[in-house]
Design goal:
It is built from 11 helices and 3 strands; from the N terminus they run βααβααααβααααα. By secondary structure, it is mainly α. It has a 3-stranded mixed sheet with strand order 2-1-3. The chain is globular.
């Protein structure tokens, strides 16, 4: 309590899957397997890229960083979800909720930007092959990765500060599986319109802009591929892009449904499902998509297995 009858929220309750009381044990087992799969699959991909001489190219350098980012991104939400399913407590402190939201924003934006960088890499490789070693040299690759991780940090910290500067005077039940802006706005007291608009504008900037860059890259790539004289050349070019396109479609398809769908189209159940999709399903399938569709990765894996 803080003076008079004003209640100040000191902690939140993440409802998660509390509406499925009989499935808590099964859900815990499922998400534990998913989390371990994400950790093992992406770690194995990073190991292969670091150790195999045939994978020392810019494309795999970005892929290794993307796999590491997937591990970090998933670790922001899944361990907490597992703990809630195991203990049934579901409470999260105000500060822990703010920290989770901030890292979720930062890593989500980094993923969008890194996907755009990977599309640019494919664009240069296919559309400007003679200049590829010059344009995508190691220093440029490192700078692009650092920029992807860091460029949104100041803005997103400010966004998080604005969200958690709102008055939360009860109720304190977040009908979601982790702390995120849309369900938090529903709990805030007073007018949240300006901050909601600000969050939406930032989302447009850091989510939609990379997507448009990816789209522009692939328009150029497809145009160039169609001009290639040989069928084998076209097939090889398509093969190098297909895995990246699948990951982009999975990530953006589910994420845009949550953040760009009108409020009237939101239901708590659908938001949870789509949130699970871009925070767990995409990171889980990432190693499989790149391994099964990529001969270089399969070759590197086959060298490792006999050992």
């Amino acid at each position: 309590m803080a003076g008079g009858n004003l209640t100040v929220v000191m902690e939140f309750i993440l409802l998660g899957f509390s509406d499925l009381p009989n499935l808590q044990g099964i859900l815990f087992a499922i998400f534990l397997v998913i989390y371990l799969s994400i950790l093992i699959g992406n770690s194995l991909l990073i190991f292969l890229i670091k150790t195999d001489s045939g994978l020392q190219t810019p494309m795999y350098f970005f892929l290794g960083n993307f796999s590491f980012l997937e591990i970090c991104y998933t670790s922001v939400t899944l361990p907490r979800m597992l703990a809630d399913l195991w203990t049934q407590k579901r409470t999260i402190s105000f500060l822990a909720c703010a920290v989770q939201t901030c890292f979720f924003f930062i890593l989500g934006v980094a993923e969008c930007l890194l996907l755009a960088v990977m599309a640019y890499d494919r664009y240069v490789a296919i559309c400007k092959p003679l200049y590829y070693p010059l344009i995508m040299n190691h220093n440029v690759c490192v700078q692009l990765v650092i920029a992807s991780w860091m460029i949104g940090v100041p803005v997103l910290i400010e966004q998080t500060y604005q969200i958690f500067s709102l008055n939360f005077c009860g109720p304190n039940k977040i009908n979601h599986i982790f702390c995120d802006a849309p369900p938090l706005f529903k709990l805030a007291c007073g007018d949240t319109y300006k901050i909601e608009v600000s969050v939406h504008v930032v989302a447009q900037l850091f989510i939609l802009t990379p997507f448009l860059l990816i789209l522009a890259s692939y328009v150029k790539i497809i145009t160039t591929i169609l001009k290639l004289p040989s069928t084998s050349g076209r097939s090889k070019a398509y093969s190098t892009c297909f895995s990246h396109l699948m990951v982009v479609c999975l990530f953006y398809g589910s994420g845009s449904t949550v953040y760009f769908q009108p409020k009237s189209g939101h239901s708590a159940g659908s938001v949870k499902v789509f949130a699970l999709f871009y925070t767990t399903v995409t990171p889980m399938f990432n190693p499989l998509i790149y391994s099964l569709r990529n001969k270089d990765v399969v070759t590197a894996l086959s060298k490792l297995l006999p050992k």
